[in-house]
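Subject: Tyrosine-protein phosphatase

B.,
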Amino acid sequence: MPTSDALDELVNLRDLGGQPTGDGVLTRSGVVYRSDAPHPGDRDPAEAAAWPPRVVVDLREAVETQDEHPLATVAQVHRVRVLEGLDKPETDGSVHELTLLYEGMLQGAPKKLVEVFRQVLEADGPALVHCAAGKDRTGVASAMLLGAAGVRQDAIIADYVRTDKNMFRVLQRLNEAPELPPGVDEEMVAEFLATPTQAIERVLEIFDDHRGAAGWLSTHGVTDDELDRWQEKFLQK
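Prediction pasted inline below.
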């Protein structure tokens, strides 16, 4: 089990830079980070090229955000409650519940996801997008941001599943990690904490129905100029 010192920093943080597009161009580092929720007293992440962020987009619901955001003194914090008002997904087991949840976000909260896109686009410096675990809401938003820049689908999926190895510590940070009995280690419970690829693949399928994430954003009001500026900002030239 990690010590408490190992949990006084973001445990599911990563820079979305360095991701390849279909043309072989890479996304630029220090533009947008994704992570689990910051906590008061967290250490600055050593792996972040530029910290603190200038803009934070917090995707959590009101019941999750009763206190002032820990980064409010150093960043503009925008709360975009992407799950607010969405119906709880129901499944008979034939479709993974997270797949239905992700579909629900794209179908039921497109304006909120467009707001996420615009907050990151207009950020005057690094932006951080996060929810509680940095897995589901953040995963859909990250796929949208990466896809809008033309990042390859296999790279988007690979970024999504990177959360797998971080989930046990994420749950510890949320005080929801199970106590493991003697002889049981984190790998044995990993399947219960996994990021199912079929869920994010369904997001990419929906984007494909609109000729990609950029097309999906255009359908919901994002202009060609905004998309061009996003690629100019996020892609290495």
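The first strand starts at residue 14 and ends at 15.

T.
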